[in-house]
Amino acid sequence: MDPNIDIDIFRDLDASFMEIFHRTQLQRYLEHLPPGEREQQLNNIMAQGDLYLSQQQQQQQQQQQQQPRYYHVHWIFSHIPFIILNFDQMWRDFSWRAFWARTIDAITSAVIMTVRALRFTTFIIGSGVYFQGVVRRLFVFCDVITFSDNFIRDMFTYILRDSKDILDQCVLLERHSRNVFYFLQYDEYSNLSSFQVIKLAYQNLLASLINVECITYAPNSTGSTTTTTSSSSSATTTSCKILTNTLVFKLSSVFQEYFPALGSTGLKLITLWMYISYALIGDIICLNILLFVSYNLINRFMGYKQVFQGLRDILWNSLFKFIL
Question: Domain of life of the organism in this record (predicted)?
Answer without folding.
Answer: Eukaryota
